[in-house]
Design a protein that fits this description.
Number of strands: 0
Domain W2: 3-188
CATH topology: Serine Threonine Protein Phosphatase 5, Tetratricopeptide repeat
Largest sheet: none
Distance between the termini: 79 Å
Pfam families: W2 (PF02020)
Protein name: W2 domain-containing protein
InterPro entries: ARM-type_fold, eIF2B_epsilon, W2_domain, W2_eIF2B_epsilon
Number of helices: 12
Helix content: over 70%
GO molecular function: guanyl-nucleotide exchange factor activity; translation initiation factor activity; translation initiation factor binding
Length: 191
């Protein structure tokens, strides 16, 4: 082997953006750890160690964890609701890890944006764009995000998912339901 052969063998990720490399490695940890049956708390320690070694944020971790979990769900010959039925328990299983990555509203809004971007990626849109409303509700029910975080995403014209997801009838219905729920909470507070 010449020295140029060695350089070519090491080159596949040399030009990779550092964030893309971080996301790729963490996503691989999620996928291989989940397939291997590793405990999510142990996987979180591994992810957290790598996060600190790479000087990354928890939002960066979420940018790998959430798509990694969605990628674990088989899509072939499945209806949207069958996919959702497989995804929900996966997200519930990993909820403790996601919550450990949430330090505040920055990460909460990032969760909405990451899920929206994932659902609109060309490789995922056929399956996931119609499920975004349900995935968003799962994230809300698991207390990963609040109404305010979702409304902040809705109001940000530059956020992933604008305008297609915001104008989706099912998403719009969910947003209206949240507004009604938020108003009833305000009325309860007034009493």
């Amino acid at each position: 082997l010449s020295s140029s052969d060695d350089e070519e063998a090491a080159a596949p990720f040399d030009d990779e953006d550092p964030l893309d490399g971080f996301v790729r490695v963490v996503m691989d940890m999620v996928v291989s750890g989940d397939h291997g049956g590793d405990g999510v708390d142990n996987l979180f320690l591994e992810i957290k160690s790598y996060k600190f070694a790479q000087n990354r944020s928890f939002a960066d971790c979420l940018a790998a964890i959430l798509p990694g979990l969605c990628n674990l769900i088989p899509r072939a010959n499945k209806t949207d609701m069958q996919i959702l039925a497989l995804l929900k328990p996966k997200l519930e299983k990993w909820s403790s890890v996601v919550l450990k990555c949430v330090m505040g509203d920055v990460e909460r809004v990032a969760i909405v944006e990451i899920l929206a971007a994932y659902c609109l990626e060309p490789a995922n849109a056929a399956t996931y764009s119609g499920l975004f409303r349900f995935i968003l509700q799962i994230a809300y029910d698991l207390e990963w995000v609040t109404e305010d975080n979702i409304f902040e995403w809705e109001d940000n014209q530059d956020a992933p998912g604008h305008p297609s997801l915001v104008q989706d009838a099912a998403v719009h219905e969910f947003l209206e339901w949240l507004r009604g729920d938020d108003e009833s909470d305000d009325e309860d507070d007034d009493e």
